[in-house]
Amino acid sequence: MRQPRLSSVVERRLLVNYRVAPDVAERLLPAPLRPQLVHGHAVAGLCLLRLGGVRPSWAPKVLGLRSENAAHRVAVEWDGPDGVETGVYIPRRDTASRLNVWAGGRLFPGEHGRADFEVHETPGRISVALATRDGDTRADVTVELSDELRGSALFADLAEASRYFRGGAKGFSATSSGHHLDGMELQTDAWHVEACSVRSAASSFFDDPQRFPPGSATLDCALVMRDVPVRWRPLQAMASGRGAQLAG
């Protein structure tokens, strides 16, 4: 079945970013992906995403659905037919929506687990906590909006960070079969990110010493997109040469 293009509004897309030792990041990746390095560091993170108005692109906005979602990500590159391509690898996706769990990997790319979310937002502060129903993954993040990006070892300023993450619009997700990766590309004519100051961040994924030995994953920065209309284009599945090291 051909998967439809989707339209939605990114009501909030909070990117919490870590700089990671390249050899550690590489162990998380299936072939043919490899870490995309910035100043010698791999880049990984947590995307806390609330979507509104999700619908097939041909459908009226009134039929759109709303959902709270999370994705663990690693910035990657691979050799495409026209040269090196860039994007992100997503070892797990989770959602508060039963429909997304059922439809992910069927009606649109990306298999999802189920999670519960607790969200508190004001114009200048965002707090998101999640716990997956399988008991495997928890996260709790609080950020405050900032007028500039401060303290990042990956990016000199907000403009550089914005360009970098805009270049990672293609996402390839792990699948239960382990033989291929589902692909989806975010497209928008209204790209805009804001800087955040991280007040607290805890993640069972990034704080796991078995996955990330002490000192191999360091919190770097956070960015947020708000109220941005986007389109989601399904990509051809990518053959996967070996299974990734997933949460566990």
Q: Can you describe what's shown?
A:
The chain has about 250 residues and is mainly β. The protein is about 10% helix and about 55% strand. It has three helices and 14 strands. Strands 1, 2, 3, 4, 5, 6, 7, 8, 9, 10, 11, 12, 13 and 14 form a 14-stranded mixed β-sheet that branches. The longest helix is centred in the middle third of the chain and has 9 residues, at about 160-165. The protein starts with 5 loop residues before the first strand and ends in a 9-residue tail after the last strand. Residues about 245-248 have low confidence and may be disordered.
C-alpha Rg (nearest Å): 17 Å
What is the helix tally?
3
Task: Indicate the low-confidence ranges by residue numbers.
Answer: 243-248
Structural class: mainly beta
Short recap of the structure:
With 248 residues, the chain is mostly beta strands. The chain is built from 3 helices and 14 strands.
Task: Please give the structural blueprint.
Blueprint: E1 6-20, H1 22-26, E2 34-35, E3 37-38, E4 41-56, E5 65-80, E6 83-95, H2 98-103, E7 113-122, E8 125-132, E9 138-146, H3 158-166, E10 170-173, E11 180-187, E12 194-203, E13 217-225, E14 228-239
Parallel strand pairs: 6-7, 6-10
Antiparallel strand pairs: 1-4, 1-13, 1-14, 2-5, 3-4, 4-5, 5-6, 7-8, 8-9, 9-12, 10-11, 11-14, 12-13
